[in-house]
Amino acid sequence: MFNSANELEFLEETTAEISQLSSLALSGDPACSENSSAGSPEKTGYPDSVYILAANIFQGTRLEKSPEKALIKYGNEPLPSSTESEDESFQRLSYELAFSALKYQDILETILIDSYIFPSTTIPDHLNSLIIVMLYDFQDRKFQARLLSGNEESIAEVLEVENLLNSFKTKLAAALARCRIKHDALSIYHILPETVRNQELRASTLPLYAWINTCKISPEEVYYTLKKNGYNKVKSVLHIDNKVFAVDQHCYDVLIFPSHLKSDLLNIDLFKDYKLIFQDKSRSLAVHSVKALLNMDDDILMVNTGSWYTVAHMSVLTNNNTSKIFVCGVQSQAKDPDLKNLFTKMGCKNIEILHETFMKLELKDHRLQKVKVILLLPRCSGLGVSNPVEFILNEHEDTDLLKDFSQGGPSEDKLHVLAQQQYEQLAHAMKFTRAQAIVYCTCSVYPEENEAIVKKALEFQDHEIKVQPYRLSPPVLPLCSLKEIHLSTDKFFRMEPSEITNGCFISVLTRERDPSETVSVKDVLARAAAKGLLEGIELGKSSKREKKKKKQKMSLPKSSIADNSGIQMKIAEFLSRETNVRKPSKPTTNPLVPTIMKNTSARPHERPTNFVRSRPEDRMIPLKPIEIALPPVILPFPSPQGIRSHLPTPHFYYRWVGPKTVLPGYLSTPSILRRGEKPKENLPSSLPRHSRP
Question: Where in this protein does the record put region Disordered (predicted)?
């Protein structure tokens, strides 16, 4: 069976060291090393239903090869699954196991061929997917037997495959060792593509993000509760193994926890009672961008929301508004009761579910007449996300993404298809004429899904629609570092995948408001009062007598404007203006003419329409003289000293003379003095006039 004595000797050594196969298994896997460092017990295997569901997921997402390169034939029939597979915890375990099998598909197939399991066995082809996922778990357990619980129901297909793998345990260990030596790798984890390894390394250390449900609890109460449970507030959670948390810099209602604390946090009532909700930060950034664009009563249309927690977060942020949130694309009405129950538990009341897909929504749908902001979260490659399983489960994405993640990225054809779908959705969103802003958000790092889509949509937007066109607006989120400022120089908000966050791209498109739709302050106050937002504040209303006077005033002929009452209004306005501080006007261009104070608002044709109550006609109010020191007038003298010696400092006095319009700089001496005041003899009777050169 073996080609040489050396190979046989190597097999014997491998057999003796089966109990120490940690170096031969996926010991380089960050997840495995993390579990061992945390002191967790050794893996004992999964329930039978997890293997069945993982095999079905692998069957639908495996990498298909050409017939001449295919080592193993897989059937097309899915395995029957139990009702337990619908449980969230079972689904998470199944997706993780299927994703691991996908990453190592080539290596696992090589081990099965090299150990002579194929073609010596007679197991049906439709069980080969089950063999792959159970082999990965078998070597991950260091080829130790699985421990079964007493109350677990066994599945015949799982027992058959398990017995087969146990009978080939020695040969499988030897094949795994040869594979490691062939690739000169410390473990088969190092055989994976570098992009996949980096992604797994980030996933093992990426912090946890959770937003506060302010409908049920305040941030201060959350901090107090966490402190009671032993959590301390810090500025950063990086490289800290203790029980700590920090507040996010971009979103004031988002908390950050170290990744190894998830199991402990899930046992706290804050998470059990929907007061704290785990979610990727990119979704929180998207809803906060929408919040920054909203007015008090603007509605929101959410497209491809994925996780219902994103909808709930948007609802919580608009809880104090009169906004309504429309969610489209819920095709199955059977989910409505479950969704309403979830939103009720979370305290969300302003959500309305639409069963039409976004592309089939009518542009003039009466339900969407008040929608001003559209949040577009299109399906994307998601290559900015470190944990694809969480991304698929939380965002309800297609399981085909597992294949793309396992290969380090999608194919060019797949990327082109996604980009075309994204462009069509963004172009359709721009056709809603009443919408004033669009927030476009992805978790991708590819420009083909981000900048290129937005620029193409702006370039080819329909200008025949009689509304203001869209334009690219700067980010509405705070930029907290020089790197973020540099990445946002072209008005796009970007976050690159790093050890603290997943990748994120956000673009904000806004259109200028139509000038014809400008709303006056009175209309805004009246609308707010009608909605009960100005409770306790009384708005001044014009009485019938004031309306009657206004009507009579409008019916007066034009000739009556220049009567004595109009003159008295001018005087009263002048007096009220004189109490304010005067502002200097621009100097005259001619240096020979003295600079005087001018008040252009006293001209009759520029006076405002609302005056204070006029005084009786028979009363004349004397004006107080004002002394103004003017700079010396420049005359053609031989030296500046000559000018100063020949020109005394002039003094001028003002008065208002009848209805006659007189320039302020050339008023004569006031003829009406205060009672008991003597006239000054040394005052000039008029202003000196100088001829222009």
Answer: 540-562, 580-610, 670-693
Q: Computed from CA positions of residues 281, 285, 287, 288, in that sequence, does the dihedral angle turn out positive or negative?
A: positive
Closest CA to 29 of 204, 227, 219, 271: 204
Label residue 481 by pLDDT band (50, 70, 90): confident
Nearest partner of 310 among 282, 335, 332, 352, judged by Cα: 282
What distances in angstroms separate CA 259 from CA 96, 234, 243, 263, one per listed residue? 17, 15, 11, 9
Is the confidence at residue 192, as pLDDT, over 90? no
460: CB partners within 8 A, 6+ apart: 427
Q: Which amino acid is at 142?
A: K
d(CA 199, CA 192): 11
The secondary structure of residue 439, as a DSSP letter, is E
Distance (Å, whole) CA 426 – CA 458: 10
DSSP class of 606: G
**Structure-token pair, residue 482:** 């020089």
Full 3-state SS string of 22-65:
HHCCCCCCHHHHHHHHCCCCCCCCCCHHHHHHHHHHHHHHCCCC
Question: Which residue in the block uniquely carries the two structure tokens 């039409």?
Answer: 356
Greater confidence, 99 or 570?
99
So which residues are the catalytic ones?
443
pLDDT in tens, 283-326: 999 999 999 999 888 999 999 887 899 999 999 999 988 899 99
- For residue 321, the one-letter residue type is N
Q: Could you tell me which of 108, 104, 47 has the C-alpha nearest to residue 81?
A: 47
Position 98, amino acid: A
Q: Count of alpha carbons within 13 Å of 470, Cβ hemisphere only?
A: 31
| Residue 98 near residue 19, CB atoms below 8 Å | no
Question: What are the φ/ψ torsions at residue 639 (nearest 5 degrees)?
Answer: -150, 160
From the CB of residue 200, how many other CB atoms can be counted at a distance below 10 Å? 19
Please tell me the pTM assigned to this model. 0.69
User: β-pairing, 437-442 with 504-511?
Assistant: antiparallel
Which residue(s) pair with 278 in the sheet? 210
One DSSP character per residue, 217-285 reads --HHHHHHHHHHTT-EE-S--TT--SSEEEE-SS-TTEEEE-GGGHHHHTTSHHHHTTSEEE--HHHHH
Q: Which of 262, 321, 330, 317 is nearest to 285 (CA)?
A: 317
Least trusted range by pLDDT, from 183-187, 409-413, 586-590: 586-590
Residue 366's contacts (CB-CB under 8 Å, 6 or more residues apart) are none
Q: What domains are defined for the chain? A: 48-192 (no CATH), 205-278 (3.30.70.1170), 281-511 (3.40.50.150)
The H or E element containing residue 299 is strand 299-303
143: three-class secondary structure by DSSP? coil
